[in-house]
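Recall that a protein's primary structure is simply its ordered list of amino acids. Everything else, from secondary elements to tertiary packing, is in principle encoded there. The following example makes that idea concrete.
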Amino acid sequence: MEQGKGCFDRNIDKAKVTDGDGDGTSVLQQCVCLEETCQSLGAETNMKVIHVVPKTKEFHQQQVDLTWRIVSDADVSSQLHAICGPVLTRASSGGSEKDMTVEEFYSIREAQAREASVMKYGDEVQGDHWNEVIKHLTIAGIKFELLGMQLNNQIKLDVSDSKQNSSWPDSRDGVFVMYNYARLATLFSNYDQEVTNGTYPPLPSLTSIDFATLREDQEWGLLFNYVLQYPIILQDVYQEVMSNLGPKVNLQMHKICGFLVSLSRDLSSYYSHVHILGGGHSHLLPVMFARLYLMKAIQQVIRKGLSLLNIRPLEQM
């Protein structure tokens, strides 16, 4: 066992597993929980367990790690530790810190997401459908807000009630990504409806598409910078975990967040000045089909990226 910087703490030589009454301590209880979870998942060899904890819990979690290795009959040597930086809240830009529970923070973001939705969509923002939409937008916004920075960095969350000072919803990256996914879902829903109406023919097979009809620089930018780049981003994130011998690992989920936000910005710019669904004239169909397949690829990238963050995309707003 290596000890020192980037490894196990130099002072970690023992761990208390029972208290004075013979009951299991939190160290042993976590070991039992980990063991039961792995068994329920049917985890075999080559399993990697990542402990995600704040800096204040790092030493305790290392005790859990080493104790579990001793008491488990399975091979649980592949354990990594991702250390989170502190999360602070402040009432205004440059203002003092403000203590807040998770529930209070969620309520603030939910109220801000609802207010932003009303400003955009008006009186239709009501009922169960919109409650569900706002719930998912709030969750997405918070996840991007927290995961959009490197894990071990300090995060300062602005919870000001002032529209002038608050960074929300102006910096609602997660909401922006969700909006652009819903935009694409609506595009394909409209296309399918027009196919049913007889305006357009069904989308032909991919092998018959002439992508040379794509003449816009932004179209090729979307393809090369995002569709083809996505597997490379995933490989970077994956390799950091799979090739790391531990115990400390830097989860780079901020790369996924930044990639999706950048993609959404370029997609929004492209979508605002290009009419993908043109008229039903035969000479316009080849470029429309090529654009639809490009949008399908973009939609798939966003959907898979969101799934890595455990975010369910919205099919409509």
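The CA atoms of residues 265 and 301 lie 14 Å apart. DSSP finds nine helices and four strands in the chain.
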